[in-house]
Backbone:
């Protein structure tokens, strides 16, 4: 594949609008980053002053946006080839690569320094590492080097709830690690379900997605295995201080629903999938989009309900760590 980075760097923006610069920050991805970070912040013991909490979320969001801009700067060549990304600001000629790089670097520095000042050094360091991991480890290295790119690269998207927790507590706990694992284990089946019906995009861009290197049959098996592994992580989260009956009910119901969808994907062959235009794969992908929002929303609900003494006593029975 021809590297077209130089072409984008030479090109000037054509009537760039404010929305084009916002698009550089990947606002849809940022929504999940902000929500999971907010969840980590709200369920952490102690809490922050509302102004500090708002500042923390803003700077975490800026860090996520910085990662998106730097990813688009680096991946402009393959974005131009893939139908799903061809209309992004750089391949569309709205924003130059130089502008994207400058925006990404500037926002990275601002977000890390300001989160450090607004909360603590650990939160700032975790945000800095997250940006580095997404841009350098995932985008520059793993994405084009291994079919396990989504697995390892998924760690970047899993850090926000841990950052939110650290912003409040200045530490990392088993609860923060389980929230990290919840996102980490969810990422591969979520993106591989997408890859099943977007295979031509990755093939044309020469990105070694699992569907390209190992085929769709192997991808279906991987989706099932990772979804099975996700179930105990989701339930284990409910057995800590941030869990409770509301979360456990949501985690069990939606994890079983996700597993049912993964099983349906695994049972299908390509003849069946092509016959209905990958309807099952698309349905499971859409379901996976709601999965994290429901589970992290349930964690927020648990934190709110603990203000009721009777509920707090009842929910404490789910805390496995306090039983020993």
Residues:
């Amino acid at each position: 594949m021809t590297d077209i980075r130089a072409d984008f760097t030479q090109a000037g923006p054509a009537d760039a609008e404010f929305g084009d610069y916002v698009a550089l920050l990947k606002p849809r991805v940022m929504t999940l980053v902000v929500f999971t970070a907010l969840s980590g912040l709200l369920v952490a013991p102690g809490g922050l002053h509302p102004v500090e909490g708002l500042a923390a979320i803003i700077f975490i969001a800026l860090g996520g946006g910085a990662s998106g801009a730097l990813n688009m700067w680096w991946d402009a060549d393959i974005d131009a080839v893939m139908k799903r990304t061809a209309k992004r600001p750089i391949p569309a000629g709205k924003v130059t690569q130089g502008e994207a790089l400058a925006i990404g670097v500037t926002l990275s520095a601002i977000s890390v320094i300001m989160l450090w000042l607004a909360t603590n050094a650990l939160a700032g360091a975790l945000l800095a590492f997250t940006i580095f991991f997404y841009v350098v480890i995932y985008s520059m290295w793993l994405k084009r080097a291994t079919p396990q790119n989504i697995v390892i690269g998924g760690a970047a998207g899993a850090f926000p709830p841990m950052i939110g927790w650290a912003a409040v507590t200045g530490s990392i706990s088993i609860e923060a690690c389980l929230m990290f694992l919840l996102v980490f284990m969810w990422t591969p089946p979520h993106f591989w379900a997408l890859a099943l019906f977007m295979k031509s995009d990755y093939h044309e861009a020469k990105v070694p997605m699992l569907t390209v290197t190992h085929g769709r049959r192997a991808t279906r098996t991987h989706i099932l295995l990772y979804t099975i592994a996700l179930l105990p992580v989701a339930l284990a989260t409910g057995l800590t201080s941030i869990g409770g009956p509301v979360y456990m009910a949501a985690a069990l119901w939606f994890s079983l629903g996700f597993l049912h969808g993964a099983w349906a994907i695994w049972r299908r062959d390509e003849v069946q999938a092509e016959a209905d235009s990958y309807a099952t794969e698309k349905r499971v992908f859409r379901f996976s989009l709601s999965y994290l929002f429901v589970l992290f929303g349930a964690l927020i609900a648990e934190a709110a309900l603990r203000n009721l003494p009777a509920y707090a006593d009842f929910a404490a029975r789910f805390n496995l760590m306090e039983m020993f």
